[in-house]
Amino acid sequence: MTGMVALYIFMLAAFTGYEVISRVPVILHTPLMSGSNFVHGIVLVGAMVALGGAHTPLEKAIGFAGVLLAAGNAVGGYVVTERMLEMFKSSGRAAQEQRRAHGQDVRAGSAATDGQERARRGREERH
Predict the structure, then answer these.
(1) CA atoms within 13 Å, Cβ hemisphere of 122
(2) Are 78 and 36 in contact (CB under 8 A)?
(3) Cβ atoms within 10 A of the Cβ of 115, count?
(4) pLDDT in tens, 83-127
């Protein structure tokens, strides 16, 4: 493959990727992050295969850098996904108020639950 063909493929892929990602609704970003983590895992496996087939010190150094970068990318993707999913979790008090609004049975110890909620908020504010 000549350099011009490779450059053309790269430019086409970059343009297509930008157009596809820019049209994704905000609500789908978390599922797409999880899917991209899968792709990062495949990239990591590919980097390990390339490192395994390296013969010269330069090839080994490039392969090692590829493995490090791919591993960091995969781990970082999972950390970001976990933080994004935390935003969608409801607090205990909000869930209790929602059940109360829908007429569902709520625990009798709501005063203890409210105290626990205040204590949790105090710990979060200190950190």
Answers:
(1) 6
(2) no
(3) 11
(4) 777 777 766 666 666 666 666 554 544 454 566 667 777 777 766
Distance CA 27, CA 24 (A): 8
Q: What are phi and psi of 109, to 5 degrees?
A: -85, 50
The residues spanned by each domain of the chain are: 27-87
Angle subtended at Cα 126 by Cα 124 and Cα 127, rounded to the nearest 5 degrees: 65
The pair of structure tokens assigned to 45 is 């496996």
Q: What is the pLDDT of residues 1-10, one digit of tens each?
A: 688 888 898 8
CA distance linking residue 43 with residue 120, whole number of Å: 40
Taking alpha carbons only, the member of 60, 56, 57, 58 closest to residue 68 is: 60
Provide the H-helix boundaries in 1-127: 3-22, 29-52, 57-86, 92-101, 110-126
Angle, CA 83 vertex, CA 19 and CA 106 arms, to 5°: 120
pTM of the predicted model as reported, rounded to 2 decimal places? 0.49
Cβ contact 50:66 at 8 Å: yes
